[in-house]
Each structure stands twice: as structure tokens, then as C-alpha cells.
Specification:
By secondary structure, this protein is of the alpha/beta class. About 30% of the residues lie in helices and about 25% in strands. The longest helix has 14 residues, at about 10-25. The radius of gyration is 24 Å and the shape is elongated. Mean pLDDT is about 95; it is low at about 200-210.
Length: about 375
């Protein structure tokens, strides 16, 4: 039989999380962000759960091809735009919208031969300092794009660096609002954190334009997959999000330790009393973080316990003492939830696991190893 580790993608959770994003931005259309192969979930696997979105936003032409191959005929946005001249030919062929964030991309458009002008999203660097035209150069870039016959509609775009915490969005929003105040075109501003934490109606935003994130398009990413964009200040449950991915395995062996015995490489955990441990078929070669040391939460039979010692390439150890205390025997074949949903309805947030590794839920999702079989539920 195959090794007993499996990831499950929950279509119902994706549908639910998309609805939560819509509820948080009722006046906006919603891009479902599926970059990084849908945050590690797989574009083809999440498509049914997210096809209620108004468009798909992604990173490169291969991802765009895959979305079109699934039958999607609505908007598709390249979040980083094109990387070379010939990419524009495929944008024309696949009817892709694309971001423009630098002079070189405008140069490519100016020499592009096409019968169908392109829909572009002109990006402002309002403080993130990654991509985009600085505020002092933004209007000149807009003017140049607007003069090109290769360009149809120009939408206006920026990205918030601190929507998940202090200092928030006010400073960047003020810059964006001041520079774009009289420019035509739809706005796309809010990522997951801004959509959930800075919810505002278009009417309110018109009254407070410099401090509120009103968007014609919002761009939820991590929230669609059930992770809180502001963890640990917020969590998935508080935002009404459901995990879209479960990583589960089983116990493949047990060991009975006496006080003073150690577990795993480097003897990183030493038992201070007699105890029973379970060995789980999951390790860092499956995408589980090696940095998750003793105390990382895990569910066995849906009951909360902890990892012990170092994570190995193919295995990790868990403490079975809490299960014995709860009257729930555990041994060979017992189900283990590394993150996501347990069979008894219990949930272990991926964000909580990631925190023990000193990282974010984003990274765990994207790091799921190719050797882990994936099932789509629903």
C-alpha cells in the first residue's frame, strides 16, 4: 500500500473563503489570486472552488495558460506583467490583462503590433518599494500609456506593505489618492489583509479618501486558502476562514520511553518521565518544516498533542501521553493531522504550525512536496 501521508484540498472551504472576501468588500469585484500554483494547492485543484471569482490573478504565462485551459473565459491578470517583448503576443492571444510597473514594459507595448489594444494595470510604488512607478513619476507613466494605440483601458493599482499591522494603510492610501484623484480608471488596491482589516464601502471612502481602501477590484490571496493574513494578531477562526488544505498521515510505530531516554537526531528531546510516543510518516521531505521542534501542535485522533525532538526527512515523533489521559488509545494506524481538518471536526491552523517554525502559513502551503499525494474533496 502507499505511504499513509496525504494532502486534501477542500473545495467547500475555498468557496466559503471566497464568499468571506466578497462580504468584506461588497462593492468590489474579486480577483482570486492563484500565483505560486495557487499557493501550493494546485491551480487545477482549486479551480472549481474559486470559479465564482470575477477574475484570476497570477504570476506568469504558464499559469495563465492553465487557467484558460480549464475553460475560464473571464479576466486573467498578470500581477508582474510581461518579462519580454514576445510575452505580449501571448497576452493578445489569450486575452490577458497585465500590470505595467516600469518604463521597459511601456517600451515593449509601444513597439508591439496588435489589432486588439491591451487592458493594463498601472502600478504605483506607494511605499512597498518593490514594483511600480514612484508617485512623482506615476502621472507621466499614465500619460505615456494613454497615448499608445496598443493600450485600451488603464486601471490604477498599488500594494500595501503594512495592511496586516501597524502602521496600516493610511499613509500609502493618502499618497495613492493624492496622485490619482482626477485620473480615470478602476482601482485595485486591497490584498487579503486590507480587504479583511480595512473594510469600507465606496460611499465611506468618498468621504475619507485618504485613509480608506476602496477598490473596484480586491486581490485576496492567502485568505482564500484559510490562513489569517495578520496572524497572530488575528486568526482564521476570528476572520471566519476555513482551511483549504489538510495535511494528514498516520502513526507507523510506537515506542515506550523511560525517563532519561531521548528521541531522534541529536537527542534534542529527553523524557523526564516514562512515556509513550508515536512515530508519524511525515518529515521535511514532505514539506513539513524541519524547524518545528518539540512542542509544535499536532492532532492525533483529532486530539491535540505535540511533536517531540527533531523532524527527520521522512518521520517525526509525537507525544501520546495526552491521548492516554483522555482515554483515547493511539497506536499503529492512528490518524494524525499535521494541519487542517481532523475527522472529528477539530481544526489545527496552519498558521500555528508555521509560527513554531518561525515562518508563515504561506511558506508551508507553497512547500508541500511533490511526493505527497493530493486529493480534492468535493
Amino acid at each position: 500500500m502507499p505511504r499513509p501521508i496525504q494532502a486534501t484540498i477542500h473545495s467547500d472551504a475555498l468557496h466559503h473563503n471566497l464568499a468571506r472576501a466578497r462580504a468584506a468588500a461588497p462593492d468590489a469585484r474579486v480577483w482570486a489570486v492563484v500565483k505560486a500554483n495557487a499557493y501550493g494547492h494546485g491551480i487545477e485543484r482549486v479551480f472549481e472552488g474559486l470559479r465564482g471569482a470575477d477574475g484570476f490573478a497570477l504570476l506568469d504565462l504558464d499559469e495563465a495558460r492553465r487557467v484558460r485551459a480549464l475553460g475560464w473565459r473571464g479576466p486573467v491578470l498578470l500581477l508582474e506583467g510581461v518579462f519580454e517583448q514576445r510575452d505580449l503576443e501571448l497576452c493578445s492571444r489569450l486575452d490577458l490583462w497585465h500590470t505595467v510597473h516600469c518604463d521597459e514594459q511601456i517600451d515593449m507595448l509601444a513597439t508591439h503590433k496588435t489589432n486588439l489594444p491591451h487592458r493594463v494595470f498601472l502600478k504605483m510604488n506607494s511605499g512597498m518599494n518593490r514594483l511600480g512607478f514612484t508617485p512623482s513619476r506615476y502621472r507621466a507613466a499614465w500619460t505615456r500609456l494613454n497615448a499608445l494605440p496598443q493600450v485600451d483601458e488603464i486601471s490604477l493599482m498599488t500594494h500595501f506593505s503594512d495592511a496586516d499591522g501597524a502602521p496600516g494603510i493610511a499613509a500609502q492610501m493618502a499618497v495613492f489618492a493624492a496622485i490619482t484623484r482626477d485620473l480615470p480608471g478602476e482601482r485595485s488596491l486591497s490584498n487579503s489583509a486590507a480587504t479583511l482589516r480595512h473594510r469600507v464601502s465606496a460611499e465611506t471612502a468618498s468621504q475619507q479618501p485618504d485613509t480608506q481602501a476602496a477598490s473596484d477590484w480586491v486581490r485576496p490571496g492567502i485568505a482564500l486558502y484559510g490562513s489569517a493574513p495578520d496572524y497572530p494578531a488575528g486568526n482564521a477562526n476570528a476572520w471566519g476562514l476555513q482551511p483549504a488544505m489538510t495535511l494528514a498521515s498516520k502513526i507507523i510505530a510506537t515506542q515506550d520511553l523511560v525517563a532519561g531516554q531521548s528521541v531522534g537526531y541529536g537527542s534534542a528531546f529527553v523524557a523526564d518521565q516514562d512515556m509513550r510516543i508515536g512515530i508519524v510518516a511525515c518529515g521535511y521531505a514532505d514539506g513539513y518544516p524541519r524547524l518545528c521542534g518539540t512542542g509544535t501542535p499536532v492532532l492525533v485522533h483529532g486530539l491535540r498533542t505535540r511533536t517531540l525532538g527533531r523532524v527527520s526527512m521522512d518521520m517525526l515523533a509525537v507525544d501520546l501521553t495526552p491521548l492516554a489521559q483522555a482515554g483515547q488509545p493511539a497506536g499503529f494506524g492512528s490518524p494524525v493531522t499535521l494541519w487542517g481538518r481532523a475527522d472529528n471536526g477539530g481544526v489545527l491552523d496552519i498558521d500555528e504550525v508555521a509560527r513554531h517554525a518561525g515562518t508563515l502559513g504561506y511558506e508551508l502551503m507553497c512547500a508541500l512536496a511533490p511526493r505527497v499525494p493530493v486529493l480534492v474533496d468535493g
